[in-house]
Amino acid sequence: MPTLEQLGSEKYVLLTTFRRDGRAVPTPIWVMPDGDGVAFWTVRDSGKVKRIRNSGRVTITACDMRGNPRGESVEATARLGGDDDMKRVSRALTKKYGLLGRMTLLGSRLRGGSARTVIVLAS
């Protein structure tokens, strides 16, 4: 079984959040290593943020860009991060994804930056 730290080196992971009734909602995302966990950012008013606020229970699985799982899932607890986390995760994003990561950060800033996005930490 992989660890969260190992999943942080994957290009894509399948983040599964859970609705109040227990139904799973999988979403392929970019993820950055963050200590012994992982971090990602997303739009503040997204469904996954709402589900994480309701219950931090998530599973994370290595996947391809279309969300097809490649391996076993790891159970984790997700929480929303703050401004310090945003800076740290943004640096990790540019380090891991290079030019594409920088372009993504620029696009995020143009669409409202930290007012519209939130960092999520999973451990």
From TrEMBL:
Domain annotation Pyridoxamine 5'-phosphate oxidase N-terminal: ranges: 5-98
A GO cellular component entry from the record: cytosol
Keywords from the UniProt entry: Oxidoreductase
Keyword Cytoplasm: no
UniProt GO MF annotations: coenzyme F420 binding; oxidoreductase activity, acting on the CH-CH group of donors
InterPro entries documented for this protein: F420H2_bilvrd_red/Heme_oxyg, PPOX_F420-dep_Rv2061_put, Pyridox_Oxase_N, Split_barrel_FMN-bd
Pfam families: PNPOx_N
Keyword Repeat attached: no
Protein name according to UniProt: Pyridoxamine 5'-phosphate oxidase N-terminal domain-containing protein
Origin species: Paractinoplanes ferrugineus
